[in-house]
Amino acid sequence: MSNALGISAVTAVLEYLFNSVYPGSGLGSVTVTAVAPDIVQSRLGGTSASQLLVNVFLHQVTLSAAWRNVDLPSLAADGSTRLSDPPLALDLHYLLTAYGSEDCEAEALLGYAVQLMHETPTLARNQIRTALANLPPTNPLAGVLGASALADQIEMIKITPATLGREELAWLWTALKADYRPTFPFQVTVVLIQAQHLLQSGLPVLQRKVQAQPSLLPPFALLTEADPPNGQPAACLGDTVTVEGANLAAATGIVVTNSRLGVNQSLGPLANVNNASFQFTVPNPVLPPPQPNPSDLPAGIYNVSAQVPQGSDVLSTNGVPLAIAPKIGAGWPPGPLASGSGVKVTIPCTPYLRPGQQASLLIGGQEAPADPIATPTNSPSFTFATLMPSSQVPVRLRVDGIDSPIIDMTKQPPAFSGPSVQVT
Fold first, then answer.
1. DSSP states of 386-406 as a string?
2. What residues form DSSP beta bridges with 88?
3. Contact status, residue 51 vs residue 31, Cβ threshold 8 Å
4. How far is Cα 365 from Cα 368, in angstroms, rounded to an integer?
5. How many Cβ atoms sit within 10 Å of the Cβ of residue 189?
6. Is the Cα torsion angle 321, 326, 330, 331 positive or negative in sign?
């Protein structure tokens, strides 16, 4: 693949090829440039002698539609380690313009250049290498464009004519703030740019195990859902979660992952393991502040997969989602809150709130975002621009879209049971 110099290398190769076509044509001395047309016009305007000049100008760069969805980026099993990087595929759009002050000169210049592109629809790799190795010393990048790797990319460089209507050409030349000259638009495709990052590569597969099972039931361990206790939509630290599925009798542990928060943690042992389900307890370590690197699971959405030994291997099942909710500490609130402007409320909570997590406190229907935090904290503060008086209302802590539990789902009908406060 090419590197970031690929675009400039294409322009330099085109400039080199156009320079090679005019010697021996009988037209005389022809200058080939690759600058904006307004710069060409200002240079020509300062000379009185006749000058023949051909200019190739890159006026637009677009993503290649054919390559845009090829070779998507891949991640490792942890969901965060990048294993491969897709190339940036670009199409380059050029204007070839001929300048001549006498009759028929511009047309002749344009004819030779267009004939060259017609006879060279694809740039051979040796053409590219020769051009980049023999750039004129007037090119300020002559010493570095050889390292662009343009000749080594997997896709060949192709030149195709482009069709621009009179209105499009008029808009272009108006934007360029230069007088129109005979112009031939064309497109160069495709330039594949790929940064040479240090990436990881997956190991080859040593053995493939394929089995035929004369049954509609899956022969392997399968998870179908993870259920927090008491019908809650999310589990809290210390809760016992029931995981259901099939062929789970051999499960020995689970792995919970959250790629956004960088969590990949193994949990065990499991309890009440049978073929259809097992249970595990969400860890609830005692972590008094300060804790610059708390070990509790932060609130968020996790992927839960089971670990099942099979022979000498340990297989991972499919994953099911599990939400871990924040929880407001027991004993809060200490009493009624005073209404007013700029009211600051501090609450105890578990798990620790990490920098970068989106948190807010809801008192009834009034919501305030968390004050900025630089280090993990279990006592975040929230500033209400205006806190209105209210009767006793529920209080929720919302972290990354997950609310702390405030409803007792075991009652019929469900009832509020979480912390509540009155604003006076």
1. EE--EEEEEEEEEETTEEPP-
2. 193
3. yes
4. 10
5. 21
6. negative
Query: What token pair was written down for 77?
Result: 């099993």
- 408/272 Cα distance (integer angstroms): 25
118: tokens are 């017609």
Task: Identify the pLDDT of residue 258.
Answer: 92
Q: Which of 3, 170, 192, 16 is CA-nearest to residue 95? A: 170
Contact 62, 91 (CB under 8 A): yes
Write down the pLDDT at residue 393.
92
Instruction: Give whole-number Cα distances, 349 to 12, 103, 243, 326, 379, in Å.
Output: 62, 84, 26, 7, 6
10-residue mean pLDDT profile of the chain (424 residues): values are: 91 94 88 92 71 94 86 64 77 94 90 94 94 89 90 92 89 90 94 74 72 67 94 94 93 92 91 95 94 94 93 88 94 88 94 94 93 94 93 93 91 88 92
- Residues paired with residue 187 on neighbouring β-strands, in sequence order: 93, 160
- pLDDT score of 48: 47
Exposed/middle/buried for residue 206 (C-beta within 10 Å: 0-12, 13-18, 19+): exposed
| The two structure tokens encoding residue 379 | 């006592």
pLDDT of residue 145: 92
Q: Which element (helix H / strand E) includes 241?
A: strand 240-246
CB hemisphere CA count around 348 (13 angstroms): 9
Q: Within 13 Å and on the Cβ side, how many CA atoms surround 86?
A: 13
The pairing of strands 222-227 and 183-193 is unpaired
CA distance 113 to 17: 9
- d(Cα 3, Cα 90) in Å, to the nearest integer? 12
Domain chopping of the chain, boundaries = 6-193, 222-324, 328-423
* Domain 222-324 = CATH 1.20.58.220: no
Supply the Cα-derived Rg of the chain in whole angstroms.
34
Task: Read off the pTM.
Answer: 0.60
